Each structure stands twice: as C-alpha cells, then as structure tokens.
Amino acid sequence: MDAFRNDLASEIAAVAARFVVEDGMDFAAAKRQAGQQMGLPARTPWPDNVTLEAAVREYIAVFCPETQALELLALRELALLWMERLQVFQPHLGGAVWHGTATRHSDIHLHLFCDDPKAAELLLIDHRVDYEPGTGRGWRGEPVDALTLRSRCDALGQWVLVHLLVHDRDALRGALKPDEQGRKPRGDARALSARLTPTGAA
Amino acid sequence: MNKRNLLTGGVAVAACALGAGVAWWRLAPREVHPPAVAAFWASRFEGPDGEPVVMDRFLGQPLLVNFWATWCPPCVEELPMLKAFQAEHGGRGWQVLGLAVDQVGPVRQFLQKLPLNFPVGMAGLAGTELSRGLGNLGGGLPYSLVFDRSGAVQHQKVGKLSAEDLALWAQLA
Fold it and tell me: How does pLDDT run across A43-101, given as a tens digit for each residue?
C-alpha cells in the first residue's frame, strides 16, 4: 500500500510539476489539474508540497535549466529593487523566487513588517502606485493585508505581479523560523543579494 | 454710446482681474514655512554617485525643484518634460534639480536607462518631510516648486506637471 501510495503521489507530482513550470500554476491548482488529466478520483493520495517542489526542481533541471536560471535571475533582481524601495518595512522575500524554482510565470512575494498596518499602503499612495488590495495568510493562517502591484520587468519583457504581505512588526521572528525541510523560508535583501552573486547557492 | 463702451471695458477689466486673481490664487505659494525654506537652502545632498549637491550653489538663479521617485509612475512620466525644460531654458539661467525620495540603488539603476541633464540629490525617506516643510502637506509625489533668484518660493504643484504649468513657469524668469 505504501509503495503504491508513494508511486502514485510521485507520478502526480511529476505531472503537476509541468503545470507549475510551463503554465505558472500554483501548487494546489497544479495537483488538481494533474489529477484531472490522470483521471483520478478526488480521494487520491495527493503529493505533499515538499514532494511537488522536488518534482518541479527535477522538471526544471531536465527541460529548461538555462532559461529558468535567467528568468529566476531577472525576478530576483526585480525583487531586490522593490526590497530596496520598501527598505523601511524590513522586506523579506519568500516563495518560488526565494527558493529558486521561479519561472517567468511566477509572482514575487514580499513580506513587510510595519508598526502601523496602514504605513505600507500609504507609501504606495504617496508614490501614486496603482495597487489592488486583497487578503493573504500569515504564519498561523491568520488573514493579513495583501497589496498587489504590477511592475515592468525589462529583462523578461513582461509585467510581473508583486504581492506585498503586510505583517505586524512582531511577526518578524516567525518569518525566520526554518520550514519543514529545515530551510530558511524567507530572506531579507542581504540574503537575497548573497544568492544573486555567482558564488551564492540558489 | 460712451457709457456702453465704458461698461464693456469695465467688464473686461473686471474679468481680467478675476482671471489674474484666480491664476494667482491657484499658483500662489501656500503653506511654506520660512524656516524650512532657509534650512533647505543651507542643506546639502549626495548625488547617486556620492557627489555633493550643495543647495547654495543654486542661489541667484531661478530654480525648479522636483521631488520624485523611481517607483512613482507620474514622476517618471514627467521627467522627459523636465529634461526638455532644462534644455530649453537652461541658457537663460534656469536650473532644474531633482530630489529623489528613494534609495540609491534604484536611482542609480534608473539613471542608467534614462540619463538626465540636471543634477539629482538623494533626499531619501527624509525627503517626504522636507517636501512637507516646503508646502507639500500631503507628502505625495511628484511635487515641484519654483524658487526665484532670491531663493523665495514662487509657485508649486503637487502631482504631475502639465506642459502649461511649465510654460507658465518659464515666463517667471
């Protein structure tokens, strides 16, 4: 049973990885799409996100290592630009751009930490930046303000969505707790710069 | 006949006065604190490459100061107009000065793509406070203001400049 379970889960993950890389789907949507394509019932041993991320890395390594590396670099540089602009809010980068699995379809996820929850929004308004307010999730699943803006990425020749998740200043410690794989789940501008230098590990 | 002429003339004069009054009211400097202006003229900034930008260097010439940021779309849109203004009126003594309410990295990167023909000083985050003292109560960007040769604020505008604003300002000196 376990062998069957693992085989099926990794098969779904392999199919889903293609949707993540080629179509920019998020993990949940990619798993559903993979299940649909494989004609699986709803009660299926779905792969967890660790398994899917490993499959995504494998897919990239096999099918598009060079283009993905360039796209990732462009997104990381754009993320760093926004982190410099929003420096006062101690921005931390998370998600695929931080972990290195991003492609041109990926959005940039920045976590901001403010004493005044409206400060980040006011800064956008002062700069006449168009943004869309929404809701995201904090570390414990609590709702947090999400501000989404569009930024031109010349290197990719396209627009990129930048999501700013606005947390309390106190939430910063939770932002740095290692994830289930023991990795740093987010990094600040300095950590990102280190990944941008050729010697830095991706 | 004479009476009618007089009347028409009177109306015209009144209309002119009203128009000028409205223009004056619309453009008159507001909420500028003299100590803030004095402090502004005594201040110095660093340019994006670390070069000094000393304000008193600009005293004695008409000066257009523009507060901007690389990530403020209307600011970026009006920069070419300011470039043209500098190119057209620089010969008559006009000087444009950009003050970036931004970080050094993004500004440096931006200026590589769009080089400017006037100096830029890094006002940083303190730039918002500075602009407030100079009459930009809301702290929004872009914010532009014109100083005369004596260093007094003549006109100011919050928000994106129009070609008419600049044409009007060019007539001031």
Answer: 888 999 999 999 999 999 999 999 999 999 999 999 999 999 999 999 999 999 999 99
Give Cβ neighbours of residue A145 (< 8 Å, ≥ 6 apart).
A117, A120, A121, A133, A134, A135, A136, A165, A166
| CB atoms A85 and B140 under 8 Å | no
pTM summary value? 0.83
- Residues from chain A that touch B103, judged by Cβ atoms under 8 A, are 84-85, 87
CATH number of the domain bearing residue B85: 3.40.30.10
CA distance A81 to chain B (A): 6
Q: Where are the domains of chain A?
A: 2-63, 66-196
Instruction: Please identify, in words, the CATH class of the domain defined by A66-196.
Output: alpha beta
Q: Does A129 touch chain B (CB under 8 A)?
A: yes
Which ipTM did the prediction report?
0.79
Q: Are residues B8 and B63 in the same domain?
A: no
Rounded to 5 degrees, φ, ψ at B102 are -165, 180
